[in-house]
Amino acid sequence: MASRRGSTSVVLPSGQTLPSYTRSSEDDDGLPHATKKKMADHLRKYEALFTLTPQRMRIIVEAFKESLELGLAKHGQVVPMIPTYVFGWPSGQETGQYLAVDLGGTNLRVCLVSLEGGGKFEITQSKYRLSEEQKQDEGQILFDFCAECLKAFIDSNIEAGIIEKDHVLPLGFTFSYPCSQDRIDHGVLIRWTKGFGAPNTEGHDVVAMFRKSLAKHSVQAEVVALTCDTTGTLIASHYVNPQTRIACIFGTGCNAAYMERAADIPKIANLGIDPNAEIAINCEWGAFDSFEHENLPRSKYDVIIDEASNKPGEQAFEKLISGRYLGEILRIIICELIDEGVLFLGQNTYKIEIAYSFDTAFLSLMESDPTDELLMIIGIFSHFFALETTLAERQFFRALAKLVARRAARLSACGIAAIVSKMGYLEDGCVVGADGSLYKKYPMFAERIHEGLQDIFGEKGRNIVTVNAEDGSGIGSAIVAAMTKARRDAGLYPTL
To answer: C-alpha 230: how far from its chain's center?
Structure first.
């Protein structure tokens, strides 16, 4: 064994603690290891697989634009381009108290938002953990739980003198699961995602179910709008910065929303909406290039992930760029090199052979390792996988992490560029509100998106700037509720 003296530690997003080691010698432990030259040869092969040229990116952007257009023209397309019935941008002058409820993948979040006009707001919130049992329990029981939590939250705010007693507040409900909507306060769940499986919910109107639970528990709230987190992010980011034109989520999942002219949404032409009215579109763009797989540069590793997933063929774009899959891409490459006898000969590799055992957070740590010896990477492999590594191997793993993450960021840039190009935002430029763990926490992810935009558009790509988005599921949902209430009170499209 190479002698080691430990010891600092790093806490991962999952809450696990990772010891990081110092090494007193690179005098490796007598096990057969890959040499520097051999690793460099392998790296060249992966560079060819994972590098996206500007020309290839521009081809992807054109195909992406066609998919967006198709989704606006007809129902039931691969990229569904869902009209949200959020009409136009917020004025920034919306005021008053609004409730927001966000049924997320791990928590139920309940917020009281006081909009103060001038792009300003105050928020009070509580979070309630969802158990795995609740996620699989009867759908109506799940909504009863939401109503009970909301009632407790309102009661405590009445006691504190923040909410008036017997005052019914408008509520925005953030429900980030695929729904078909034909008006803003109605949504039929198409299918559960994020590990939910609550029966008797798919095919039902979730707003009606929630209203039933609110009535049962006598909660003084009125659901005025159902929205998804991406649409909320678009509205909240514009409320604070009116240059915002697009919102994106780059996290465990991925999505985008933007504002479209009604005249350019042929599939809702029958609704009699003013052609110049603007409607927020929830793209659900993770589905781009699904089934046919004609446009995205899928490697054999991406195909392996897709075929082993619970929905093969679907969410093709998401599987190349989302935080859920990046660690798994790297793990599959490492396993292939183990099978070829290149890595970890004579060591027990069973831990790294477990699917999804290599967290995307590890890639993030590998890329940000500041030490010459790459001590953080020693820590990851020894602590989580009981594997010894040489410096040449660690340098290879770090270069590989960079290739996989850089491809994800550059493909993300293609999605943004498709909307920018379709809407003609390039000349005047625009702000993109971006959210999600990859964007916020992965080193260089935002910079690589910007680099990708410049590769696609040339110098003008600098006009498209991404910024940290505002809170979509809380603030955004409340602003959507305020806008919807004002619109309906004014008698504008009261049935939508």
So the answer is: 8
